[in-house]
Specification:
The complex is a heterodimer.
Chain A (H helix, E strand, L loop, with lengths): L2 H42 L2 E2 L7 E2 L3 H8 L1 H32 L7 H13 L2 H12 L5 H8 L14 H26 L3 H9 L4 H12 L1 H16 L3 H6 L11 H11 L3 H25 L8
Antiparallel strand pairs in A: 1-2
Helix pairs in contact in A: 1-13, 2-13, 3-7, 3-10, 3-12, 4-7, 10-13, 12-13
Chain B lengths: L1 H23 L3 E8 L3 H17 L3 E8 L4 H10 L6 E5 H9 L20 H6 L1 E2 L2 E2 L1 E13 H6 L11 H11 L1 E3 L2 E7 L7 H9 L17 H16 L21 E7 L3 H8 L3 E4 L9 E10 L6 H11 L2 H11 L9 H7 L1 H12 L1 E2 L7 H16 L5 H17 L1
Parallel strand pairs in B: 1-2, 1-3, 8-9, 11-12
Antiparallel strand pairs in B: 3-11, 4-5, 6-9, 6-10, 6-11, 7-8
Classes of the chains: A mainly alpha, B alpha/beta.
Protein name (chain A): Carbohydrate ABC transporter membrane protein 1 (CUT1 family)
Subcellular location (chain A): Cell membrane
Keywords (chain A): Cell membrane, Membrane, Transmembrane, Transmembrane helix, Transport
């Protein structure tokens, strides 16, 4: 009788140990490849480090310099613009495509699904190469079509006003399929009887969409929005390949600046400070989303 | 019985391993890194290294080829982690930065094997830092190339390339093919992004310079403003170019047949000749005040941290022997830099090689700078601002000079 609690705790401890043992590899990998580098980056952000000599403590100088650096402030602004003009169109178009594909009367759904989703599974590097050719100012596909239609052609990636919209378009094209697939799964999870009841009450299709569909997929929208925010703030591949930040820094982004400073100018300390600013931005946006964008949903 | 058998097996394994380690203790292993992504580089370098290993059976070379875009990162990380390669090829920017940080071993200028007297002056000058020779250059010189077929099409003599800037401008206007206001074929290939090499090419022709030996900017001089104004006018006033990025993965405009004239590096020739063949014309840089060519390329260097100094130096010297240089020229199109190879080189392709070798002998690279990569980027950005009319050439160059000076102070 006396030994009962002891035995119970011992049993519990044993099962906990076994559980811990099972998750240990995962935590080890996470610690070595994520946690330690993040802490190291946090430290480097306060140092002057060029990879060659030992890091030299400089306090908040890197952060002060970052916000006085025209390139970095431009990159910040560009990243915000890129995010705003990528996330919303991509989600809206993804939802429209999902609603259309959810229509029972539509034939060849599988082909449409594959066509929309394909850009998402193609490597962004390969996709960027294709778009480079499409946007080529001399003999690109887009200008050739415009010429055939007797319309004015443009220097898409070499015009400071058009370069960013051109890159944004590629991103919308790339992200649309993913949003569509996730929304489609959400739409198929909405009980049919809700629509039947609304039809009986005389609600139009449009009314049904705004009063049933949109509220029911709110958790999905929230999930996609959070993911899109994080992803778009980390945009790099397409910028690096298609424009390398140009012309005149009109497409440079935070990660592009981090890359340039870290790996081209060897300013590891300065780049780490920029990386931490990016971490703070994405963390803040994510927390803000969880606080205000996730009410009445059971996603977390 | 079982134990005896196990003991005999263990003894056998021990003897075998001892034998291997004894045999291996006489072999020095070197790590050699080469930047570049072309398969031809790998094939050529591996064949040259195989010859070296045959000549030196006690030295084994591990060859690694790393694409240019990853190379600076990997090399810096290797130095940082204390695992730098013993011998390596480095680009112009890396050489300037690393040599100023004492990352390379100096070569013995008096080495009989190296025989430095046989090298062109430019090779010794560009590979030297504060009076000592640290790198041996595999050069790619920027010569003037043009399309003879486009010249004919425009009513120009295909055997008479422009002789000065006035003629170059006239030719560029004449050779530009437009559809309305749209340039379909550029008169002259001017990269609007990462355009510092084209700017330097023009600056050399005015006897100007980018920066001095300490990296202090000189490009905002009268010559710099004149060169940039000339290029900006070709874009904005005369509408003769297709905007482009020299580092674009789709390749330079001239390479794709959409420009009539260009300054191109000699390394691009095999690819160009495949596309344009006998339609290509070759000439020395256009002489305004001078016809000095811009030379870039890859340096062979020995790491200061090598534990096998003797073997590493031996390998570097072998790579710079006449035979190796010839193999490298044949395989990768880097110009051979020994005077003793000149006749053989010219005979190999008289029309163009005579031009290349003349250009090489009268060529100059960028001065070293402790902030080379950053300075390049700052300058390129300022050139863009001038091309896009955001700033006047003088404003753009003055601002870039101020930024580079600030970077040097840091």
């Amino acid at each position: 009788m006396k030994n009962r609690p002891k035995r119970f705790f011992r049993k519990k401890l044993n099962s906990e140990r076994i559980g811990l043992l099972f998750i240990l590899p995962n935590y080890l990998i996470y610690t070595v490849f994520v946690l330690i580098p993040v802490i190291w980056t946090l430290y480097l952000g306060f140092t002057d480090y060029n990879l060659m000599s030992a890091p030299k403590w400089v306090g908040i100088q890197n952060y002060v310099q970052a916000f006085q650096d025209e390139n970095f402030t431009t990159a910040l602004m560009n990243t915000f613009l890129f995010s705003i003009f990528t996330i919303f169109p991509s989600m809206v178009l993804g939802l429209i495509a999902a609603v259309l594909l959810n229509n029972k009367l539509l034939k060849g759904k599988a082909i449409f699904r594959a066509c929309y989703y394909m850009p998402n599974i193609i490597s962004m590097v390969a996709a960027s190469m294709v778009w480079l050719w499409i946007y080529d100012p001399g003999h690109g596909l887009l200008n050739s079509i415009l010429m055939a239609m007797k319309m004015e052609t443009k220097d898409w990636l070499f015009d400071p006003f058009l370069a960013m919209p051109s890159v944004i378009l590629v991103n919308i094209w790339n992200g649309l399929g993913y949003n569509m697939i996730i929304y489609l799964a959400g739409l198929q999870g909405i009980p049919e009887y809700l629509y039947e009841a609304a039809t009986v009450d005389g609600a139009s299709k449009l009314r049904q969409f705004f009063t049933i569909t949109i509220p029911m997929i709110k958790p999905i929208t929230f999930f996609l929005f959070v993911m899109a925010c994080i992803k778009s703030f980390q945009v790099f591949d397409q910028v690096f390949i298609m424009t390398n930040g140009g012309p005149i820094n009109s497409t440079t982004t935070i990660v592009h600046q981090i890359y340039q400073n870290a790996f081209q100018y060897n300013k590891m300390g300065y780049a780490s400070a920029m990386a931490l600013v990016l971490l703070l931005i994405t963390t803040t946006i994510t927390l803000f989303n969880f606080k205000y964008g996730n009410q009445e949903s059971d996603i977390i | 019985m079982k134990q005896k058998l196990l003991f005999i097996i263990a003894l056998g394994v021990f003897v075998l391993l001892s034998g291997i380690s004894l045999a291996d203790s006489n072999v020095t292993t070197l790590n050699f890194w080469m930047p570049g992504q072309e398969p031809t580089i790998k094939a050529t370098m591996e064949s040259v290294l195989a010859k070296f290993e045959k000549e030196n059976p006690n030295i084994k070379v591990n060859y690694a080829q790393i694409p240019w875009n990853e190379y600076p990162v990997k090399l810096n990380t290797a130095y940082s982690g204390g695992v730098a390669p013993d011998v390596m090829g480095v680009g112009w920017g890396q050489f300037g930065q690393l040599v100023s940080q004492n990352r390379f071993l100096p070569f013995d200028k008096n080495s009989a094997k190296l025989n430095t007297k046989d090298f062109y002056d430019v090779v010794l000058k560009e590979g030297s830092y504060r009076g000592r020779l640290y790198g041996l250059l595999l050069p790619e010189v920027r010569v003037f190339l043009y399309r003879k077929d486009y010249f004919k099409e425009a009513g120009l003599d295909p055997n008479k390339p422009p002789r000065n800037w006035q003629e170059l401008q006239k030719y560029a206007i004449k050779l530009t093919k437009r559809n309305g206001s749209r340039v379909e074929r550029a008169g002259l290939d001017i990269a609007t992004q990462n355009g510092h090499q084209m700017f330097a090419t023009m600056l050399w022709q005015l006897n100007g310079d980018l920066w001095d030996e300490d990296g202090q900017p000189l490009f905002n001089s009268k010559e710099g403003v004149q060169a940039l104004t000339y290029l900006v006018n070709l874009k904005n006033k005369y509408n003769t170019i297709i905007p482009s990025d020299i580092q674009s993965l789709t390749g330079p405009v001239f390479m794709n047949g959409y420009a009539a004239m260009a300054y191109m590096q000699t390394q691009a020739l095999p690819e160009l000749e495949k596309k344009a063949g006998d339609k290509l014309g070759y000439a020395l840089p256009i002489k305004q005040k001078s016809d000095t060519a811009l030379v870039m390329g890859t340096f062979f260097t020995v790491s200061a941290s090598t534990k096998n100094k003797e073997a590493a130096t031996k390998l570097a010297e072998f790579l710079y022997s006449g035979d190796s240089l010839w193999d490298i020229y044949q395989g990768i199109n880097f110009l051979p830099t020994r005077k003793s190879l000149e006749d053989r080189f010219v005979k190999d392709s008289p029309e163009k090689n005579r031009i290349f070798i003349t250009a090489l002998q009268n060529s100059r690279g960028f001065n070293k700078s402790p902030v080379f990569s950053e300075a390049q980027k700052i300058l390129s950005l300022s050139l863009e601002q001038a091309y896009y009319g955001k700033k006047t050439p003088k404003q753009a160059l003055d601002e870039a000079a101020a930024k580079i000076r600030a970077a040097l102070k840091k």
